Amino acid sequence: MKTSELSGFYKLTPEERMKIVKEFANLTDEEVEYLRKTGGLGLDLANRMIENVVGTFELPLGIATNFKINGRDYLIPMAIEEPSVVAAASNAAKMARVRGGFFTESTPPVMIGQIQLTKVPNPEEAARIVLERKKELIQIANEQDPLLVKLGGGAVDIEARVLQTERGPMVIIHLLVNVLDAMGANVVNTMCEAVAPAIEALTKGKVFLRIVSNLAIYRIAKARAVFAQEALGGEEVVEGILEAYAFAAADPFRCATHNKGIMNGVIAVALATANDTRALEAGAHAYAAYGGRYKPLSHWSKTVDGDLLGTIELPVAVGTVGGITAVHPLAKICRKILGVQSARELGEIMAAVGLANNLAAMRALATEGIQRGHMKLHARNIAVMAGAEGDLIDLVAARLIAERKIRADRAKEILEELKKAGITKP
Ligand code: MEV
To answer: Is the pTM of this model over 0.85?
Structure first.
Protein backbone atom coordinates (compact mmCIF):
# COMPACT_ATOMS: atom_id res chain seq x y z
CA MET A 1 0.00 0.00 0.00
CA LYS A 2 1.26 3.45 -0.87
CA THR A 3 1.57 5.80 2.05
CA SER A 4 2.15 9.53 2.20
CA GLU A 5 3.24 9.20 5.82
CA LEU A 6 6.95 9.68 5.27
CA SER A 7 8.65 10.41 8.54
CA GLY A 8 12.10 11.86 8.12
CA PHE A 9 11.36 12.86 4.51
CA TYR A 10 12.65 16.31 5.33
CA LYS A 11 16.03 14.90 6.33
CA LEU A 12 16.64 13.27 2.93
CA THR A 13 18.50 14.82 0.03
CA PRO A 14 16.42 16.06 -2.92
CA GLU A 15 17.66 13.05 -4.89
CA GLU A 16 16.50 10.61 -2.22
CA ARG A 17 13.14 12.34 -1.96
CA MET A 18 12.81 12.22 -5.70
CA LYS A 19 13.24 8.42 -5.66
CA ILE A 20 10.38 8.08 -3.17
CA VAL A 21 8.12 10.40 -5.18
CA LYS A 22 9.02 8.57 -8.37
CA GLU A 23 7.90 5.29 -6.90
CA PHE A 24 4.79 6.77 -5.28
CA ALA A 25 3.57 8.46 -8.46
CA ASN A 26 4.97 5.99 -11.00
CA LEU A 27 7.03 8.73 -12.61
CA THR A 28 8.99 7.77 -15.70
CA ASP A 29 12.76 8.32 -15.96
CA GLU A 30 12.01 11.13 -18.39
CA GLU A 31 9.69 12.85 -15.91
CA VAL A 32 12.31 12.61 -13.21
CA GLU A 33 14.84 14.13 -15.58
CA TYR A 34 12.49 17.09 -16.02
CA LEU A 35 12.23 17.50 -12.27
CA ARG A 36 16.01 17.45 -12.02
CA LYS A 37 16.42 20.44 -14.33
CA THR A 38 16.63 23.44 -12.05
CA GLY A 39 17.36 26.43 -14.26
CA GLY A 40 18.80 29.55 -12.65
CA LEU A 41 17.90 28.77 -9.06
CA GLY A 42 19.86 25.57 -8.55
CA LEU A 43 18.90 22.65 -6.37
CA ASP A 44 21.16 23.52 -3.41
CA LEU A 45 19.69 26.98 -3.03
CA ALA A 46 16.14 25.72 -3.52
CA ASN A 47 16.77 23.05 -0.90
CA ARG A 48 17.71 25.75 1.60
CA MET A 49 14.68 27.89 0.82
CA ILE A 50 11.84 25.53 1.65
CA GLU A 51 11.33 22.05 3.03
CA ASN A 52 11.10 18.69 1.27
CA VAL A 53 12.49 20.01 -2.00
CA VAL A 54 12.63 17.72 -5.02
CA GLY A 55 13.19 20.34 -7.73
CA THR A 56 12.27 23.82 -8.85
CA PHE A 57 9.35 25.12 -10.87
CA GLU A 58 9.83 27.45 -13.79
CA LEU A 59 7.65 30.12 -15.35
CA PRO A 60 8.22 32.15 -18.50
CA LEU A 61 10.03 35.42 -17.83
CA GLY A 62 9.08 38.21 -20.24
CA ILE A 63 10.23 41.80 -20.46
CA ALA A 64 7.58 44.50 -20.73
CA THR A 65 8.83 47.36 -22.84
CA ASN A 66 7.96 51.05 -23.33
CA PHE A 67 7.60 51.95 -19.67
CA LYS A 68 8.41 55.52 -18.78
CA ILE A 69 7.91 56.15 -15.09
CA ASN A 70 8.61 59.56 -13.56
CA GLY A 71 10.52 60.47 -16.70
CA ARG A 72 12.78 57.42 -16.58
CA ASP A 73 12.72 54.47 -18.95
CA TYR A 74 12.36 51.00 -17.48
CA LEU A 75 12.41 47.48 -18.84
CA ILE A 76 10.10 45.43 -16.64
CA PRO A 77 10.73 41.72 -16.00
CA MET A 78 7.47 39.82 -15.58
CA ALA A 79 7.20 36.14 -14.62
CA ILE A 80 3.81 34.76 -15.56
CA GLU A 81 2.20 31.75 -17.21
CA GLU A 82 -0.66 33.68 -18.85
CA PRO A 83 -0.40 34.74 -22.50
CA SER A 84 -0.99 38.40 -23.41
CA VAL A 85 -0.15 39.99 -20.05
CA VAL A 86 3.36 41.10 -20.99
CA ALA A 87 2.20 42.28 -24.42
CA ALA A 88 -0.74 44.12 -22.86
CA ALA A 89 1.48 45.92 -20.35
CA SER A 90 3.92 46.91 -23.10
CA ASN A 91 1.12 48.18 -25.36
CA ALA A 92 -0.48 50.23 -22.61
CA ALA A 93 2.92 51.65 -21.64
CA LYS A 94 3.46 52.68 -25.25
CA MET A 95 0.12 54.50 -25.28
CA ALA A 96 0.94 56.19 -21.98
CA ARG A 97 4.20 57.59 -23.39
CA VAL A 98 2.25 59.99 -25.61
CA ARG A 99 1.35 62.02 -22.50
CA GLY A 100 4.64 61.48 -20.66
CA GLY A 101 4.19 57.97 -19.24
CA PHE A 102 3.41 57.07 -15.64
CA PHE A 103 3.87 59.23 -12.58
CA THR A 104 4.14 57.57 -9.21
CA GLU A 105 4.51 58.26 -5.52
CA SER A 106 4.41 56.25 -2.31
CA THR A 107 4.19 56.52 1.43
CA PRO A 108 7.13 55.52 3.65
CA PRO A 109 7.29 51.72 3.98
CA VAL A 110 5.42 51.37 7.26
CA MET A 111 4.01 47.94 8.06
CA ILE A 112 1.51 47.02 10.75
CA GLY A 113 2.13 44.29 13.31
CA GLN A 114 -0.91 43.13 15.26
CA ILE A 115 -0.95 42.08 18.90
CA GLN A 116 -4.15 40.49 20.14
CA LEU A 117 -4.66 41.24 23.82
CA THR A 118 -7.44 39.33 25.58
CA LYS A 119 -8.81 38.65 29.02
CA VAL A 120 -8.23 42.15 30.33
CA PRO A 121 -10.60 43.24 33.10
CA ASN A 122 -11.24 46.59 31.43
CA PRO A 123 -10.46 46.74 27.69
CA GLU A 124 -10.80 50.53 27.34
CA GLU A 125 -8.47 51.01 30.28
CA ALA A 126 -5.99 48.48 28.84
CA ALA A 127 -5.95 50.29 25.48
CA ARG A 128 -5.33 53.56 27.31
CA ILE A 129 -2.42 52.07 29.31
CA VAL A 130 -0.81 50.68 26.14
CA LEU A 131 -1.01 54.08 24.45
CA GLU A 132 0.31 55.80 27.55
CA ARG A 133 3.34 53.53 27.64
CA LYS A 134 3.94 53.51 23.89
CA LYS A 135 7.39 55.06 24.20
CA GLU A 136 8.84 52.20 26.23
CA LEU A 137 7.03 49.59 24.10
CA ILE A 138 8.51 51.12 20.94
CA GLN A 139 11.91 51.01 22.59
CA ILE A 140 11.56 47.28 23.32
CA ALA A 141 10.54 46.75 19.69
CA ASN A 142 13.51 48.70 18.39
CA GLU A 143 15.98 46.80 20.55
CA GLN A 144 15.20 43.81 18.32
CA ASP A 145 16.79 45.37 15.25
CA PRO A 146 19.40 48.02 15.98
CA LEU A 147 20.62 47.95 12.38
CA LEU A 148 17.19 48.83 11.03
CA VAL A 149 17.02 51.71 13.52
CA LYS A 150 20.52 52.85 12.60
CA LEU A 151 19.53 52.94 8.94
CA GLY A 152 16.56 55.17 9.74
CA GLY A 153 13.79 52.60 10.18
CA GLY A 154 12.24 50.81 13.12
CA ALA A 155 9.04 50.96 15.17
CA VAL A 156 7.53 54.42 14.90
CA ASP A 157 4.13 54.30 16.58
CA ILE A 158 1.52 52.24 18.39
CA GLU A 159 -2.25 52.23 17.95
CA ALA A 160 -4.76 50.47 20.17
CA ARG A 161 -8.49 49.85 19.86
CA VAL A 162 -11.15 47.71 21.46
CA LEU A 163 -12.60 45.12 19.11
CA GLN A 164 -15.94 43.43 19.80
CA THR A 165 -15.73 39.76 18.81
CA GLU A 166 -17.81 36.61 19.24
CA ARG A 167 -15.57 35.76 22.19
CA GLY A 168 -16.01 39.11 23.81
CA PRO A 169 -14.01 42.34 23.63
CA MET A 170 -10.29 42.27 22.78
CA VAL A 171 -7.71 45.02 22.63
CA ILE A 172 -6.00 45.07 19.25
CA ILE A 173 -2.67 46.79 19.30
CA HIS A 174 -0.95 47.84 16.09
CA LEU A 175 2.79 48.26 16.12
CA LEU A 176 3.78 50.47 13.18
CA VAL A 177 7.24 49.72 11.82
CA ASN A 178 9.17 51.47 9.10
CA VAL A 179 10.81 48.44 7.46
CA LEU A 180 12.80 50.43 4.86
CA ASP A 181 13.68 48.15 1.93
CA ALA A 182 12.55 44.85 3.44
CA MET A 183 9.19 43.24 2.85
CA GLY A 184 9.10 43.47 6.61
CA ALA A 185 7.08 40.51 7.85
CA ASN A 186 10.02 38.98 9.73
CA VAL A 187 11.12 42.07 11.58
CA VAL A 188 7.54 43.05 12.41
CA ASN A 189 6.75 39.57 13.75
CA THR A 190 9.92 39.57 15.86
CA MET A 191 9.07 42.98 17.30
CA CYS A 192 5.48 41.99 18.07
CA GLU A 193 6.66 38.89 19.89
CA ALA A 194 9.15 40.96 21.85
CA VAL A 195 6.69 43.60 23.09
CA ALA A 196 3.91 41.14 23.92
CA PRO A 197 5.19 40.17 27.42
CA ALA A 198 5.53 43.84 28.35
CA ILE A 199 1.96 44.48 27.19
CA GLU A 200 0.73 41.53 29.26
CA ALA A 201 2.58 42.83 32.31
CA LEU A 202 1.17 46.34 31.87
CA THR A 203 -2.44 45.27 31.34
CA LYS A 204 -2.69 41.96 33.24
CA GLY A 205 -4.15 40.48 30.07
CA LYS A 206 -3.19 37.56 27.85
CA VAL A 207 -1.70 38.01 24.39
CA PHE A 208 -2.44 35.42 21.74
CA LEU A 209 -1.60 36.44 18.16
CA ARG A 210 1.47 38.50 17.29
CA ILE A 211 1.73 38.82 13.56
CA VAL A 212 2.10 41.23 10.66
CA SER A 213 -1.08 42.41 8.92
CA ASN A 214 -1.17 42.06 5.16
CA LEU A 215 -3.62 44.93 4.99
CA ALA A 216 -0.71 47.36 4.73
CA ILE A 217 -2.70 50.61 4.66
CA TYR A 218 0.35 52.69 5.57
CA ARG A 219 2.50 51.29 2.75
CA ILE A 220 0.76 52.55 -0.32
CA ALA A 221 2.02 53.03 -3.87
CA LYS A 222 0.17 55.28 -6.29
CA ALA A 223 0.48 55.67 -10.04
CA ARG A 224 -1.28 57.79 -12.60
CA ALA A 225 -1.16 58.18 -16.36
CA VAL A 226 -3.05 60.04 -19.04
CA PHE A 227 -3.87 58.06 -22.17
CA ALA A 228 -4.39 60.23 -25.22
CA GLN A 229 -7.72 59.67 -26.93
CA GLU A 230 -6.10 59.17 -30.33
CA ALA A 231 -3.58 56.68 -28.92
CA LEU A 232 -6.47 54.67 -27.46
CA GLY A 233 -8.35 54.62 -30.75
CA GLY A 234 -10.77 57.53 -30.46
CA GLU A 235 -13.63 58.86 -28.43
CA GLU A 236 -15.67 55.69 -28.62
CA VAL A 237 -12.87 53.68 -27.05
CA VAL A 238 -12.59 56.21 -24.22
CA GLU A 239 -16.33 55.96 -23.64
CA GLY A 240 -16.18 52.16 -23.74
CA ILE A 241 -13.42 52.11 -21.13
CA LEU A 242 -15.42 54.45 -18.89
CA GLU A 243 -18.42 52.14 -19.24
CA ALA A 244 -16.19 49.21 -18.25
CA TYR A 245 -14.90 51.12 -15.24
CA ALA A 246 -18.39 52.16 -14.12
CA PHE A 247 -19.43 48.50 -14.28
CA ALA A 248 -16.52 47.47 -12.03
CA ALA A 249 -17.16 50.33 -9.62
CA ALA A 250 -20.79 49.25 -9.20
CA ASP A 251 -20.57 45.46 -9.20
CA PRO A 252 -18.36 43.18 -7.06
CA PHE A 253 -18.52 40.33 -9.58
CA ARG A 254 -17.02 42.51 -12.29
CA CYS A 255 -14.77 44.31 -9.82
CA ALA A 256 -13.02 41.10 -8.76
CA THR A 257 -12.04 40.49 -12.39
CA HIS A 258 -11.12 44.14 -12.92
CA ASN A 259 -8.75 43.93 -9.93
CA LYS A 260 -7.49 40.55 -11.09
CA GLY A 261 -6.39 42.22 -14.31
CA ILE A 262 -4.43 44.76 -12.26
CA MET A 263 -2.84 41.98 -10.21
CA ASN A 264 -1.76 40.22 -13.42
CA GLY A 265 0.86 42.94 -13.77
CA VAL A 266 1.63 43.46 -10.08
CA ILE A 267 2.14 39.77 -9.35
CA ALA A 268 4.21 39.12 -12.48
CA VAL A 269 6.71 41.76 -11.33
CA ALA A 270 6.52 40.41 -7.78
CA LEU A 271 7.36 36.90 -8.98
CA ALA A 272 10.23 38.12 -11.13
CA THR A 273 11.71 39.86 -8.10
CA ALA A 274 10.96 36.92 -5.74
CA ASN A 275 8.50 38.85 -3.62
CA ASP A 276 5.67 37.35 -1.58
CA THR A 277 2.79 37.29 -4.04
CA ARG A 278 0.25 36.01 -1.51
CA ALA A 279 0.93 38.97 0.77
CA LEU A 280 0.39 41.34 -2.14
CA GLU A 281 -2.84 39.65 -3.26
CA ALA A 282 -4.23 39.56 0.27
CA GLY A 283 -3.30 43.19 0.84
CA ALA A 284 -4.68 44.42 -2.47
CA HIS A 285 -8.08 42.77 -2.17
CA ALA A 286 -8.47 43.64 1.51
CA TYR A 287 -7.59 47.25 0.63
CA ALA A 288 -10.14 47.20 -2.17
CA ALA A 289 -12.79 46.30 0.42
CA TYR A 290 -11.40 48.45 3.23
CA GLY A 291 -14.06 51.14 2.93
CA GLY A 292 -16.77 48.55 3.58
CA ARG A 293 -17.55 47.78 -0.05
CA TYR A 294 -15.30 45.97 -2.54
CA LYS A 295 -14.08 48.59 -5.02
CA PRO A 296 -11.69 48.86 -7.98
CA LEU A 297 -8.07 49.55 -7.06
CA SER A 298 -7.94 51.93 -10.01
CA HIS A 299 -10.00 54.97 -10.94
CA TRP A 300 -10.72 56.19 -14.48
CA SER A 301 -12.11 59.49 -15.71
CA LYS A 302 -12.13 61.73 -18.77
CA THR A 303 -9.93 64.82 -18.85
CA VAL A 304 -11.16 68.15 -20.22
CA ASP A 305 -9.26 67.31 -23.42
CA GLY A 306 -11.19 64.06 -23.84
CA ASP A 307 -8.22 61.87 -22.85
CA LEU A 308 -8.41 59.13 -20.26
CA LEU A 309 -6.92 59.68 -16.81
CA GLY A 310 -6.14 56.56 -14.82
CA THR A 311 -5.01 56.40 -11.21
CA ILE A 312 -4.30 53.47 -8.95
CA GLU A 313 -3.41 53.00 -5.33
CA LEU A 314 -2.67 49.79 -3.52
CA PRO A 315 -0.63 48.44 -0.62
CA VAL A 316 2.75 47.13 -1.72
CA ALA A 317 4.55 45.07 0.89
CA VAL A 318 7.59 44.29 -1.22
CA GLY A 319 11.28 44.13 -0.51
CA THR A 320 14.56 44.60 -2.28
CA VAL A 321 16.64 43.32 0.63
CA GLY A 322 16.22 40.35 2.95
CA GLY A 323 14.30 37.15 2.39
CA ILE A 324 14.80 35.36 -0.87
CA THR A 325 14.75 38.60 -2.87
CA ALA A 326 18.41 38.95 -1.97
CA VAL A 327 19.27 35.28 -2.55
CA HIS A 328 17.44 34.17 -5.67
CA PRO A 329 19.91 34.67 -8.53
CA LEU A 330 17.17 35.35 -11.10
CA ALA A 331 15.45 37.84 -8.80
CA LYS A 332 18.74 39.66 -8.40
CA ILE A 333 19.19 39.83 -12.16
CA CYS A 334 15.60 41.02 -12.62
CA ARG A 335 16.21 43.77 -10.06
CA LYS A 336 19.28 44.77 -12.02
CA ILE A 337 17.25 44.90 -15.24
CA LEU A 338 14.73 47.10 -13.44
CA GLY A 339 17.50 49.21 -11.96
CA VAL A 340 15.48 49.80 -8.79
CA GLN A 341 17.19 51.40 -5.82
CA SER A 342 14.56 50.83 -3.15
CA ALA A 343 11.50 48.85 -2.17
CA ARG A 344 9.43 52.00 -2.56
CA GLU A 345 10.56 52.40 -6.15
CA LEU A 346 9.74 48.73 -6.81
CA GLY A 347 6.27 49.17 -5.31
CA GLU A 348 5.64 52.23 -7.46
CA ILE A 349 6.71 50.32 -10.57
CA MET A 350 4.26 47.56 -9.67
CA ALA A 351 1.47 50.13 -9.33
CA ALA A 352 2.32 51.52 -12.79
CA VAL A 353 2.38 48.05 -14.34
CA GLY A 354 -0.93 47.21 -12.65
CA LEU A 355 -2.47 50.35 -14.09
CA ALA A 356 -1.09 49.50 -17.53
CA ASN A 357 -2.55 45.99 -17.46
CA ASN A 358 -5.86 47.35 -16.24
CA LEU A 359 -6.04 49.84 -19.11
CA ALA A 360 -5.10 47.23 -21.68
CA ALA A 361 -7.69 44.77 -20.39
CA MET A 362 -10.50 47.35 -20.34
CA ARG A 363 -9.58 48.60 -23.80
CA ALA A 364 -9.64 45.10 -25.23
CA LEU A 365 -12.88 44.24 -23.43
CA ALA A 366 -14.59 47.44 -24.54
CA THR A 367 -13.57 46.94 -28.19
CA GLU A 368 -12.70 43.66 -29.91
CA GLY A 369 -13.01 41.50 -26.78
CA ILE A 370 -10.25 39.76 -24.88
CA GLN A 371 -10.17 36.51 -26.79
CA ARG A 372 -8.49 37.60 -30.02
CA GLY A 373 -5.28 38.66 -28.32
CA HIS A 374 -5.37 35.75 -25.93
CA MET A 375 -6.11 33.21 -28.58
CA LYS A 376 -2.96 33.53 -30.64
CA LEU A 377 -0.66 32.30 -27.91
CA HIS A 378 -3.27 29.97 -26.52
CA ALA A 379 -3.73 28.37 -29.95
CA ARG A 380 0.03 27.80 -30.15
CA ASN A 381 -0.03 26.14 -26.74
CA ILE A 382 -2.89 23.90 -27.83
CA ALA A 383 -1.01 23.04 -31.03
CA VAL A 384 2.05 22.03 -28.99
CA MET A 385 -0.18 19.99 -26.66
CA ALA A 386 -1.56 18.19 -29.71
CA GLY A 387 1.97 17.21 -30.71
CA ALA A 388 2.88 19.87 -33.29
CA GLU A 389 6.55 20.75 -33.61
CA GLY A 390 8.57 23.36 -35.50
CA ASP A 391 6.69 25.21 -38.25
CA LEU A 392 3.69 22.98 -37.72
CA ILE A 393 2.93 24.81 -34.46
CA ASP A 394 2.12 28.04 -36.28
CA LEU A 395 0.31 26.25 -39.09
CA VAL A 396 -1.99 24.40 -36.69
CA ALA A 397 -2.48 27.52 -34.54
CA ALA A 398 -3.43 29.62 -37.57
CA ARG A 399 -6.06 27.07 -38.63
CA LEU A 400 -7.48 26.87 -35.09
CA ILE A 401 -7.82 30.65 -34.99
CA ALA A 402 -9.34 30.84 -38.48
CA GLU A 403 -11.89 28.21 -37.52
CA ARG A 404 -12.44 29.81 -34.09
CA LYS A 405 -12.05 26.38 -32.53
CA ILE A 406 -9.16 26.49 -30.10
CA ARG A 407 -9.46 22.88 -28.95
CA ALA A 408 -6.95 20.09 -28.52
CA ASP A 409 -9.08 17.51 -30.37
CA ARG A 410 -9.39 19.80 -33.40
CA ALA A 411 -5.67 20.59 -33.23
CA LYS A 412 -4.90 16.87 -33.42
CA GLU A 413 -7.15 16.47 -36.47
CA ILE A 414 -5.54 19.43 -38.24
CA LEU A 415 -2.08 18.12 -37.41
CA GLU A 416 -2.93 14.74 -38.91
CA GLU A 417 -4.39 16.38 -42.04
CA LEU A 418 -1.27 18.50 -42.52
CA LYS A 419 1.05 15.55 -41.98
CA LYS A 420 -0.91 13.38 -44.41
CA ALA A 421 -0.76 16.13 -47.01
CA GLY A 422 2.99 16.40 -46.42
CA ILE A 423 2.69 20.06 -45.39
CA THR A 424 5.35 20.98 -42.84
CA LYS A 425 6.07 24.60 -43.76
CA PRO A 426 3.95 27.69 -44.21
C1 MEV B 1 -7.47 38.15 -17.46
O2 MEV B 1 -6.35 37.55 -16.86
C3 MEV B 1 -7.70 39.54 -16.91
C4 MEV B 1 -8.98 40.22 -17.40
O5 MEV B 1 -10.08 39.37 -17.11
C6 MEV B 1 -9.08 41.50 -16.64
C7 MEV B 1 -10.39 42.22 -16.83
O8 MEV B 1 -11.41 41.56 -17.12
O9 MEV B 1 -10.39 43.45 -16.63
C10 MEV B 1 -8.95 40.42 -18.87
So the answer is: yes
